[in-house]
Specification:
153 residues, mainly alpha, 8 helices, globular
């Protein structure tokens, strides 16, 4: 990767790699992992869905993906606190494709929504005008096997 290249000129994969190199350099050794924190996006989604009340599952399942942003402050704050996104759960941040808890919590919220929709046999594609569609696309970059899959697979 060319170090003189501007971020705007980099591919998403190059930006992601550059970000993580800087993140590791800046936060090396200043965090501790909690044994109960999920380490991957899949583990986080499974934990949240398992702990959700049935009425909350129904409400989230029936929402439009672009409206999920309204959960950023209350539910998102709980996710950030409970899953260690502010306290050094680097593995989960990386799995979400972000080093910032705010963005990672939105990836988790969208993934929970998607899992609930799939569990109920509903379409789980993000709306084309969803302002956080890029969050989920960047999270896919942290899991190359999923990022390479074709949508119909």
């Amino acid at each position: 990767m060319d170090s003189d290249k501007l971020l705007i000129d980099m591919s998403p994969a190059e930006r992601c790699k550059c970000f993580w190199q800087a993140f590791k350099r800046n936060y090396k050794g200043i965090y501790k992992e909690h044994p109960e924190w999920p380490r991957t996006l899949e583990q986080a989604v499974t934990q949240i869905v398992t702990e959700m009340k049935e009425r909350d599952r129904a409400r989230i399942t029936n929402e439009n993906s672009r409206d999920l942003i309204r959960h950023h402050h209350l539910w998102g704050t709980n996710i950030r606190n409970d899953l260690g996104l502010w306290n050094g759960n680097i593995a989960l941040l990386k799995s979400c494709g972000y080093g910032h808890g705010d963005h990672a919590s939105m990836v988790i919220i969208k993934a929970v929504w998607k899992r609930l929709r799939e569990m109920n046999g509903l379409p789980a594609e993000l709306a084309e005008d969803d302002p956080h569609r890029a969050y989920v696309e960047i999270a896919a970059l942290s899991n190359p096997a999923k990022a390479r899959r074709k949508p119909e697979e």
